[in-house]
Protein: GMP synthase [glutamine-hydrolyzing]
Organism: Meinhardsimonia xiamenensis
Amino acid sequence: RLLIIDFGSQVTQLIARRLREAHVYCEIHPYQKVDAAFLKEFAPQAVILSGGPASVTEPGSPRAPQELFEMGVPILGICYGQQVMMVQLGGHVESGHKAEFGRAFVEPVGNHRDEPIFEGLFENGREEVWMSHGDRVTALAPGFEVYGTSPGAPYAIVADPRRHFYAVQFHPEVHHTPNGARLLRNFTRIAGFTGDWTMGAYKEEAIRRIREQVGPHGRVICGLSGGVDSSVAAVLIHEAIGDRLTCVFVDHGLLRLGEAEEVVTMFRDHYNIPLIHADESELFLSALEGVSDPEEKRKTIGRLFIDVFQKHAAEAGGAEFLAQGTLYPDVIESVSVTGGPSVTIKSHHNVGGLPEKMGLKLVEPLRELFKDEVRELGRELGLPERFIGRHPFPGPGLAIRCPGEITREKLEILRRADAVFIDQIRRHGLYDEIWQAFAVILPVRTVGVMGDARTYDYACALRAVTSVDGMTADYYPFSHEFLSETANRIVGEVRGINRVTYDITSKPPGTIEWE
Ligand code: XMP
């Protein structure tokens, strides 16, 4: 297995993802945890050092354990990881150079073009890469040679071929480095990985880890939302520990039209998984009365969720574990809440709303996965395609699609508008092309005219995006015909809405949800 040492880059998980795509098993561990003893125990076959926000020139900045470099395993340093390698192996790094962000072109140096690390690369002479750094290497560590340069980065790719140490200034893991995945793959092949690891193997590994964490008698309670994530988590955990899993489906009054019935039928009747249907809508909706700040909404919902779980866990016979379908994008965007690096964009309720002292331990078997990988895992677990293909639905539900204060009236209107929009998308055969689509009810009333009468009703916005992993997204380019037909249907069929707009913001700078 391959070890990724995380120095806190926003995109470390993408390294893991690229490796999974190359069918290589890897694990990410934060640098704080990786010491000599850890390395010995883990016994990695190869190591990748991630990027990170720090500067190696600052006193106390993160390092790898020095023993790493004596283990005789191939190492690849990326960006901050490159600088760590250079300073720890006797080279030199300076800050204060002009920062370099964005697209650059790397060319191979001399006859290094034919090195195994470059297999399939530089076929057109140069490679486009994504740079993002402030510091740069000014003197190479002994044993290293320059393999590739760019106009702004003379040491864009360096290597010590004798020890199989490689270090790159740019980020090969991001989409903006189009052939970066190839470089990572080449590195793993040099390290002896054959690329025979699969999602089936991941499933087995995940089941093993759940059993190990929960122990032979532990009981798990799982919050089921009806979305793909919690469903896959539930089925996976059920496969690992059988009926020691109880699912609690919390109806927080923020679900879509007909959703509650659908989920209960599916899990109780189809999967035979023990399920408690907790109708707590009164509790949630009254707690949300008068709350209009998005973070406060999320925190309120997150807090109540935990309370409700604890109550039902006790009723179900005392579970010690709480399972959640937290995905990697939830983790990275909330990571400063949980004590790591990077900035809070939104406190996704799965992780952000957890009280400091929760009585239950967390089981989060999907924490390392992106949405499309969860779907693949779902297929591996035999979930029906219709279910796997469902658009994601956020834990806080319609609360974050109702900017401003939430009222029962607005929720009812929103549900019906959303149902019409999704029906339109299905009728036009577009559901599977779209990553996520939903309606948002705006906190404004506008004037309209229907028949001969004046109306003064809510406006709604429609959101439909394409995305690979939810981290970035673009709006879906509906035809004008589709948009007018949909707007007409919504205004005609949904009482309380007299105006429809379509949101054409990408992410970034927008986010997918409005709150
Ligand atoms: P944003 O709005 O952050 O959404 O661009 C990215 C993806 O995450 C979903 N989302 C959430 N999922 N709890 C969840 O389980 C949350 O609090 C939450 N907030 C956003 C969102 O629907 C989209 O798929």
Summary: The longest strand covers residues 436-450.
